[in-house]
Amino acid sequence: MSRSLFGSIADYVVALGDDNAATLQPAATVTAWSDARGGSQYADLLQADGVTPVPEGKLVSDERGALPEFYGLDGVTAVYLDASGGEGPRRRTIATDLGASLAGTQAALATHAAAVNPHGTASWSLADQTAYPNVDTFLAGNPFVAAHRGSGQEYPEHTMAAYESALAAGARAIEVSVNVTSDGIPVCIHDTTLDRTTDHTGPVSAWTYAALREQVRAKPQTLLGAGWADQRIPALRDVLDRLYGRCVIFLEPKNSAAVHPILDLLDERFPGGPHSIIYKGYYTDGSFAGVRARGYRVWAYVDAGTTDAQMDAVQANVDIWGVPTGMTDARITAVVGRGKPVMSWEVHSFTDRDRLLGLGVRDLMEARWVYLNKPRVPTFAAALAARVMPPGMLTPQHYSAAWAPKLDADGAFHLDQLSGYSICMGGMRAASADAYTVAVSMRWDTLPAATLHSDIAVGKASDDAFQLSAPTNASGGYHVLVRASGDLQIYRHDPHVTSGVALGSVSTPPPVAGTPVRIEVQVTPTQIIARRVDLGTTYTVTANDTTYRGPFWHLSNGSVTSQATVPRWSNPVVS
Length: 575
Hints:
TIM Barrel
């Protein structure tokens, strides 16, 4: 036997970074393994000269995330690459010189690589297809979960960075939305116009693909933080070259003009598409019959006003029904009762998830895949410092730049909404419901009136929205008020009750504009304890109340009445 050559590929090494967020990894230390999980590390690697050992079998990716060339073990033609110290996730790659060892196939492999994969490494995509779920195995899951827009509330929606990052985090299915350019090239973008997500305006269909590729960039910064770079709008062909066979793809033409270019691409280049792709569309889409004749499963989504008669008219060409998360319980139950699998979109919270599964929905299209499927984290420090939105910072409105938390250059963050709205710190939920401490710094750059306050809510059993003094609060808990006068107070809030119940108060020196106040809130089985700890002297107020306990907590703008007095939060920690 002989050693095979690997590496020197333009595929990024992907790993879980700080706060369990998937990130692209230049300058990463990468090891090679025998299996996707567990297995043995291949330490006996050789450098590209075929003689010099790779020290400890540890490779280092370049500034693009590509690996140097290396030789594997004798007889090994495929390895799993790991950039997380052996903890995964791992990406399978096969030897780049494998084609040369297969008599009579060299020319075919070269042609395939040049046509399908822009980086000349198409062989890995063929080898990967048996290692990842196909449509049948995916739909057998209960529930089965897909990343909405590539987990678009955590990564720049419908970009290659989103798709790759969601897969690296562990997603087994990705939603891909498609529009078409003026010259008929399918591209991945949700809206029919460029206005919401890019640095240009106007219809996607007004641009040639070449102009779109060179001039237009997706701008995720207002939604996901200034730490994100601008992103290209990818062509569907490039996305399928990268994803096909590695996951299930929910593929949707966003208008009728995109249908035939998509189907032509699938027919020509991906004849096995029905094994990996589910066709998605609004229930009135007239292409369902032709799509199913090609062997594809169809997910048809409806809205709150869709009638039973309208669903009956298309039922024969539907395999999965889609319902919006905001549909009433009664109507979702009725759709479930039709007997076909039901998938709900878009799912942002554990509250959403638990409600939907309880109603019989089997499948979820999640816009916050990492938050809903990965472990909690004790701090967001690294992400906030990088100005990249951490998973699980929830506000009442989604996919909205106006409602997204703003990540400031100094590592602080705030919410530009008044009326008592808050940020749910779901990604930093506590490990237990009744034994934890939340610590956070808060500052007002402009002091509000002395009686006004901003708040920390704790003890909540769910990650539903918390709004001060609002009847819409679905779950109870406690909120600690920090008043501009310096008073530190504990209140209990009950479900659907506008007024809180005062439980305790202590006077502290008034905060100073521009200077952070450090607050700790401790939850025990019998007490809620609030402390101010930034002054040398610790000020404490205790409430003996056991009504509510839960791991979720929120940071609320409270009663402030102007943008100038919105609180800036920083250094949140839960222990």
